[in-house]
Design brief:
Elements (H helix, E strand, L loop, with lengths): L1 H9 L1 H36 L9 E3 L2 E3 L1 H39 L8 H19 L1
């Protein structure tokens, strides 16, 4: 039972997913800082309001905090834009260039000797880990 669990956890896609979640959290922190420290003050300079969270209205003693929603939407849009422009767009351009080279019949560049050594070391390390 424990062996099966260990195999499940050590599979590449589970580890890759865990790494992606950690990196995504760290990236989210960076983008949240970008929004809080750069974008929000820019909005404040233009609109005259630094933080929208205090914007509310009341209906029959129920308070609607639409300002907090506006803050969340701005943060989401900034995170989405950062992910698109920093990750998605460059990877799409790289894929387009690779496809254009393949269409012309040009092979991918051969790895340099030092890259081959590193790849062999990674392969050997993974083999040792899977054998353990």
């Amino acid at each position: 039972m424990l062996k099966g669990f260990k195999e499940f956890v050590m599979r590449g896609n589970v580890v890759d997913l865990a790494v992606a979640v950690v990196i995504g959290g760290a990236f989210g922190t960076v983008v949240a800082s970008l929004v809080a420290d750069l974008i929000t003050p820019l909005i404040a300079a233009i609109a005259g309001k630094h933080d929208f969270s205090d914007l509310t209205f009341e209906v029959h003693n129920s308070v609607f905090r639409y300002g907090a929603f506006i803050n969340a939407v701005v943060a989401f849009l900034m995170i989405a834009a950062a992910i698109y422009y920093v990750i998605v767009l460059p990877l799409n351009k790289l894929a387009e260039r690779r496809a254009a080279r393949a269409a012309k019949g040009e092979p991918d560049p051969e790895p340099r000797p030092e890259e081959l050594v590193l790849l062999e070391q990674i392969r050997d390390l993974l083999d040792r880990q899977s054998a353990a």
